[in-house]
Amino acid sequence: MKRQIITIDEKKCTGCGDCIPGCPEGALQLIDGKARLVSDLFCDGLGACIGHCPTGAMRIEEREAEPYDEKRVMQESIVRGGPNVIAAHLRHLRDHGADNYLQDALDYLEAAGIANPLELAGQEAAVPCHQAEHAPPAHGHHGGGCPGSRTMDFRSANGHAASATPAARETAASSELRQWPVQLHLVSPLAPYYEGSDLLLAADCTAFAAGDFHRSLLQGRTLAVACPKLDSGMDVYVEKLVAMIDMARINTITVAIMEVPCCGGLMSIVSEAQKRAKRKVPVRKIVIGVQGNKLGEEWV
C-alpha cells in the first residue's frame, strides 16, 4: 500500500544520531555510520524525527510500504523497553495528533493487562487529542516530550484563536495564534487545525516588521514560519507543504515575505510544492517592507 513514510538522504546524513531519540517506535538505527530506516512496519510516518536532523537528510515521502501496525510495534518494540518507553511513545502519538494509533496502543495495553504509565503518574497525556481539541491550552510542564514540537490546538469552539474574543480583537495586542508549534520543521502537516484551513506561510522577519501582523495577516489562518535563507532542509519544507495540500486539504496559501531578495526563496518552495501536489490551491503573495509597510499583494 502507499502511505507516508520517512526517507533518508545518505549523502546528507552525518551519522550524528540526533534523529534516533525522536523515533520511539525503533524504526531508525545507526548502521555503518548512517541513520537507516530498518523497518517500514515500525515507521508511523508522522515525521517526529525530521525536526532533529541538523542537515536536512530526512523527509517524508509517499511510497509503497508495509502498513504501519501500532499493536505489533507495541508488542515487539515499545513494551519491551519498560514503562518509561511506553510513556514516551504514548506522548509521541498524542503530541502528533495520531488519535487512531494512540487508541490502538491503549487497547493493546488493556488487552495485555499492562498498566498505562501515564495514568499511574496522574498525567492526562493518554487522552486522545480529539477529546480535548477545544480545551484551553496547557502551559508549563506537560509530563515529558519536547514542548517545542508538541501539537497544541488553541481554537475555541467557533474556530477563532482562544484568546481572540470579540473585544480583544479590537486591540492591537490580541493574539490570533490558533496552534503550536509554528516553525515549519516542527509542525505536523496532518495536525487537526490544518485540515481545511487557510494557511499563512510567513517568513520569520515579517512578524517583527509588520506591526499589525496578527490582525492583518494571521487572523483566521493557521500558521507556518520559515526562513529560506538560514533554514536547512528545504526539501522537507516542500514535502510538508505537499502533505498539507493533498492530505490536510488546505484551502489557500498566503505567503508573506519581506522585500529583501533572499525572501523570494519562500515562493520557490511553494511553487515546487504546487508542482508535486495532486491538488491545486490558490496562492497569494504579500510583500512587507523593511519598515513594516505592505508593498504589494497579488494572487499568483
From TrEMBL:
**Record domain 4Fe-4S ferredoxin-type: where:** 4-33, 34-63
User: Membrane-crossing residues?
Assistant: none
Asked if DNA-binding is a keyword of the record, the answer is no
Question: Which Pfam family, giving just one, matches this sequence?
Answer: Fer4_10
Q: Is Thylakoid among the key words of this record?
A: no
Chain spans, region Disordered: 133-172
UniProt lists compositionally biased (Low complexity) regions at 161-172
**Keyword terms of this UniProt record:** Iron, Iron-sulfur, Metal-binding
Output the InterPro entries linked to this UniProt entry.
4Fe4S_Fe-S-bd, 4Fe4S_Fe_S_CS, Corrinoid_activation_enz
Q: Name one GO molecular function term.
A: iron-sulfur cluster binding
Q: What is this protein called?
A: 4Fe-4S ferredoxin iron-sulfur binding domain protein
Q: Which organism is it from?
A: Chlorobium limicola (strain DSM 245 / NBRC 103803 / 6330)
